Amino acid sequence: MAPRTIAAALTPFxxxxxxxxEAAFEPYLAYLQAGGVDGVxxxxxxxxxxxxxxxxxxxxITRFAxxxxxxxxxxxxxxxxxxxxxAPSASPAIPQIR
Length: 98
Known about the structure:
Blueprint: E1 6-8, E2 13-14, E3 19-20, H1 22-34, E4 39-41, H2 48-51, H3 54-65, E5 70-72, H4 80-84, H5 87-90
Parallel strand pairs: 1-4, 4-5
Antiparallel strand pairs: 2-3
């Protein structure tokens, strides 16, 4: 197996850190891919994963997953129900905990 490069990705924000910059995900991921990156670690590099709301985490994971490279999306909330909830955004095959 060839070595793989996984980047600790930043999460694009706009308006300061007030909102996800959803338009920035696609060009950012394409840039990483062009640089030889095979995948990204999303929502885990600067603590933003635990600071975002559930809706924001789902939106960010979806945007990362829509990109051209593999995604590792750790779940960091302190409650199990909140941790498992974003998973279906990245893979519809994962059952959602209710």
